[in-house]
Design goal:
Order of helices and strands of chain A: HEEEHEHEHEEEHEHEHEEHH
Shape of chain B: elongated
Number of domains of chain A: 2
Structural class of chain A: alpha/beta
Oligomer: heterodimer
Order of helices and strands of chain B: HHHHHHHHH
Radius of gyration of chain A: 24 Å
CATH superfamily of the largest domain in chain A: Periplasmic binding protein-like II
Helix content of chain B: over 70%
Number of strands of chain B: 0
CATH superfamily of chain B: MetI-like
Distance between the termini of chain A: 81 Å
Number of strands of chain A: 12
Number of helices of chain B: 9
Strand content of chain B: under 5%
Number of domains of chain B: 1
Structural class of chain B: mainly alpha
Largest sheet of chain B: none
CATH architecture of the largest domain in chain A: 3-Layer(aba) Sandwich
CATH class of the largest domain in chain A: Alpha Beta
Radius of gyration of chain B: 23 Å
CATH architecture of chain B: Orthogonal Bundle
CATH topology of chain B: MetI-like fold
Largest sheet of chain A: 5 strands, mixed
Number of helices of chain A: 9
Chain lengths: 281, 240
């Protein structure tokens, strides 16, 4: 009987027929060429700022109106703000689309130079990463289907509550769980869009998440979703960096200018649809 | 555009202390070990059930596929092609997020994951059974038919039992893949081993739970990998 491809021969050595070896070599060369072309292509794109230094900016680009994709390009409040900061501070942000729960780890391990991803400044997070000055005033919110009969967090009972993994919404939900306001399941999703899909499908009963993002979802829902309760937290978003990053100073300086000269209000109006009540300090 | 290496070594980043702190924090392990063990149980039961159902469904598919009737083999072929040719992640998202729109609401995440894994595993199992059955010498079928058995009886009592022995090593390898693939079900929110580790990772701001999860996967997969290798060697000796 002749040996099948890749079988062990009498002497115990692996025999690989020459034609298979040749095919594997051709395949490897092809794969390398494609990967090389892709690397060159992506390296050249995405330069909008005209700054002199490229920096890697991580963002969970599935969070309208702050960061989402349009025609294959990241757009939104955070993106406009970061590009403007880059222009003034002399760098070009290269956005890397990541899951939110991986951002802090990626920053602490120096995988990214910075992140702008609607991230709330909290003392726990600030132990591991550095934040810029706050750039957005946000609150949490309870999002439900309009006919759910849930009027506030106190009505949740054994409802299934969706949150995005690693967000302040998740932290808030865990808090409500400890207080006994949520006796059902707190279900975590990788992206807020997945949570929205589950809510629209009736697979979960409510979502606790940042107000502006849930508001954006309500606006596009033709009345099927509502926010019965705003959960005031006074939380603020910050741009984040690895500890002791050199970027914090220049970014803060540019951010202060942007708040001062009216550019902030312009970006706010464009994405939130109204003028900011006050500029976050 | 000049070529740039996608990897660079930056000695200023070198920090084994942080690596240990981030990925091997014994305190985080001891505080969350029970939760991870619970999640391991979910993963194992998911994998066992999906494999068992996948074998039943996959054997049926294989028999359909080798049948001469076009009405029987064409749908089986289509099924196998679709499930082997699309990513499991896409299949799971479809099964969970698209089904409510056709009026089917899958209430249990475990069930949704089980359905997706079973449907996927069946396609791979079918191919394994098909090659196993076709590896049995043609003469066996002819002998069976000549001794008065029907096609179905020959399959049932002569061909399939022999094929079963031959497919055990590849089936074991497929099972190992399935065990690891259960982690993909975490995308719909099921707290199996991977998601449980990530939830703890998010709560503790520490990546150690991922390492523990990886060791758990390794602990159940490695014995199976060696079992498959051993069985394969024994089988090769016998048929040589």
């Amino acid at each position: 009987m002749e040996d099948a491809p890749g079988t062990i021969g009498e002497d115990g050595a692996l025999k690989i027929p020459r034609n298979i070896l040749r095919a594997a070599l051709v395949f490897a060369a092809l794969a390398f060429t494609v990967a090389f072309a892709a690397a060159c292509g992506s390296g050249g794109g995405g330069g909008q700022g005209g700054g002199d230094e490229d920096i890697t900016v991580a963002s969970d680009i599935a969070y309208p109106p702050f960061e989402f994709e349009k025609d294959g390009e990241p757009v939104g409040f955070d993106i406009d703000l970061m590009n403007e900061i880059g222009k003034r501070a002399g760098f070009t942000p290269e956005y890397q689309n990541v899951t939110f729960d991986g951002i802090i780890g990626g920053l602490t391990n120096n995988q990214y130079d910075a992140s702008i991803s609607s991230m709330t400044i909290t003392p726990e997070r600030a132990k591991r990463i550095d934040f810029s000055d706050p750039y957005f005033d946000a609150d949490q919110s309870l999002l439900v289907q309009s006919d759910s009969g849930i009027g506030s967090v106190d009505d949740l009972g054994d409802a299934t509550v969706g949150v995005q993994l690693g967000t302040t919404g998740e932290i808030k939900a865990k808090e409500f769980e400890e207080q006994g306001k949520i006796s059902g399941e707190v279900r975590t999703f990788d992206t807020i869009e997945d949570a929205f899909a589950a809510l629209n499908n009736g697979q979960i009963d409510a979502i606790i998440n940042d107000l502006p993002v849930s508001q954006d979802e309500v606006n596009g829902s033709d009345g099927s979703l509502e926010i019965p309760q705003v959960i005031p937290t006074g939380e603020q978003y910050g741009i984040s960096f690895p500890k002791d990053s050199d970027l914090v100073g220049p970014v803060n300086k540019a951010l202060a200018e942007i708040k001062e000269d009216g550019t902030y209000a312009k970006i706010y109006k464009k994405w939130i649809g109204r003028a900011p009540e006050e500029i976050p300090q | 555009m000049p070529f740039e290496w996608p990897v660079e070594f930056d000695p200023s980043l070198f920090n084994p202390g942080r690596l240990r702190e981030q990925f091997l924090d014994l305190g985080v392990i001891s505080e969350n070990f029970d939760t991870l063990l619970q999640a391991l149980l979910v993963t194992v039961s998911l994998a066992l059930l999906a494999e068992a159902l996948g074998i039943v469904f996959g054997l049926a598919l294989a028999l359909l596929k080798i049948s001469r009737s076009r009405i029987l083999n064409a749908p089986a072929q289509l099924y196998i092609d679709v499930f082997r040719g699309t990513p499991l992640l896409v299949q799971i998202i479809f099964i969970y997020f698209a089904t409510p729109n056709v009026g089917l609401r899958i209430e249990s995440l475990f069930f949704a994951g089980l359905v997706a894994l079973t449907l996927n595993a069946a396609a791979y199992v079918a191919e394994i059974f098909r090659s196993g059955i076709q590896s049995i010498d043609r003469g066996q079928m002819e002998a069976g038919r000549a001794s008065g058995l029907t096609y179905a009886q020959t399959m049932r009592f002569i061909i399939v039992p022999q094929a079963f022995r031959r497919v055990i090593p590849p089936l074991t390898n497929e099972f190992v893949m399935l065990i690891k693939d259960t982690s993909i079900v975490s995308v719909i929110g099921l707290e199996e081993l991977l998601r449980s580790a990530r939830v703890i990772q998010s709560a503790t701001a520490n990546s150690t739970p991922l390492l523990v999860a990886a060791l758990f996967y390794l602990a159940i997969c490695l014995p199976l990998i060696y079992l498959a290798n051993g069985l394969e060697r024994r089988l090769n000796r016998r048929t040589a």
